[in-house]
Write a structure and sequence with these properties.
The protein has 108 residues and is mostly helical. 79% of the residues lie in helices and 0% in strands. The two termini are 19 Å apart.
Length: 108
């Protein structure tokens, strides 16, 4: 159910991790295909939200929202933006993996 979004999230994590290890001048010179553009991130997020809302109940969507709320709190605390972005995406991918597993193996 979420295989594509999980793979997409892992790819964004890989690119963010690579970018986080660069100096600012190296980041500035980084080609766009090696970055995670905001539009791509927004599309990933919108796709996930639609799938969760259409396939799971409000409790599951609330769990999803908590991951983004934590992201916002980390940003407000001025945590390194890469660390903050990575931890949010790790949390979302972990949730998607759990939901994917539940969808494939519903409890009886």
């Amino acid at each position: 159910m979420f295989e594509e979004q999980i793979a997409w999230g892992r790819d964004m994590i890989r690119r963010l991790e690579a970018e986080s290890r660069l100096t600012q001048s190296e980041r500035d010179a980084l080609p766009s295909h090696r970055r995670v553009p905001r539009k791509e991130d927004d599309t990933w997020r919108e796709t996930i939200e639609q799938k969760i809302q259409s396939s799971f109940g409000p409790d599951t969507f609330a769990r999803y929202q908590v991951a983004w709320d934590l992201h916002g709190e980390e940003l407000c605390k001025e945590v390194d933006p890469y660390t903050c972005a990575l931890s949010a995406r790790y949390r979302i991918v972990a949730l998607l993996e759990e939901l994917d597993s539940r969808a494939k193996h519903p409890s009886t």
